[in-house]
């Protein structure tokens, strides 16, 4: 296993490094592509990185060191979501697949009540969509004009998920996508 997760303390030891990571990187496919230190401080104060629903980890790679941040959301539900942000210099090397596989192992391996794990991204975030598909996740929704874009028209939001039973068996089951004939 080359990827591991280290729970970070957003109000204590990791605060400065977290603000640095979130402000020196650009996230072109997030609602807020550039964050200021004040934005991050507000998110920390709101509990976005750690409270009963949220938790955040440094993504560590055995050869490359710290390569990103993984945030889990909706942890009080049995179907959490995630937000994965790799550091700029390590993007574009296919590492997302390894990290998402490890994140899925982490969630299902440490959270016995969780039966599905979800993620959403913009339709034009091809790197993330390919990462989902390469990890065996299934597209379950395509929300037209569901993702606001500052200064431009909204784009679609696409939702993918993996079920615990598919993770256990190493398969990707599907469902009848076509709607009723009326
Ligand atoms: C999204 C993310 C996790 C993907 O991980 P990654 O390791 O950087 O993924 P890659 O850039 O290697 O892309 C995976 C595949 O998509 C392809 N791809 C990327 N952008 C593409 C584009 N615009 N058009 C076509 N293919 C594209 C890559 O070529 C690659 O395919 P290949 O292996 O066949 O060459 C990472 O880039 C990241 O953290 N981005 C910023 C934050 C973000 O958007 N997070 C997602 C929100 S959950």
UniProtKB/TrEMBL annotation:
Residues 3-165 form the N-acetyltransferase domain. InterPro entries: Acyl_CoA_acyltransferase, GNAT_dom. Pfam families: Acetyltransf_3. PROSITE patterns: GNAT (PS51186). This is GNAT family N-acetyltransferase.
């Amino acid at each position: 296993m080359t990827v591991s997760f280290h729970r970070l303390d957003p109000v204590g030891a990791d605060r400065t490094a977290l603000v640095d990571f979130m402000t020196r990187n650009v996230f072109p496919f997030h609602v807020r592509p550039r964050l200021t230190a004040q934005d991050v401080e507000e998110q920390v104060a709101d509990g976005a990185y750690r409270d009963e629903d949220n938790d955040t980890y440094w993504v560590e790679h055995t050869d490359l060191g710290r390569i990103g941040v993984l945030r889990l959301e909706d942890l009080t539900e049995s179907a959490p979501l995630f937000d994965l942000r790799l550091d700029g210099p390590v993007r574009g090397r296919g590492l997302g697949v390894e990290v998402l596989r490890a994140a899925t192992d982490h969630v299902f391996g440490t959270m016995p009540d969780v039966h599905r794990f979800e993620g959403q991204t913009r339709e034009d975030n091809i790197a993330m969509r390919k990462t989902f598909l390469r990890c065996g996740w299934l597209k379950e929704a395509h929300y037209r004009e569901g993702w606001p874009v500052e200064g431009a028209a909204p784009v679609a939001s696409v939702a993918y998920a993996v079920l615990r039973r598919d993770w256990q068996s190493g398969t990707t089951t599907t469902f009848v996508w076509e709607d009723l004939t009326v």
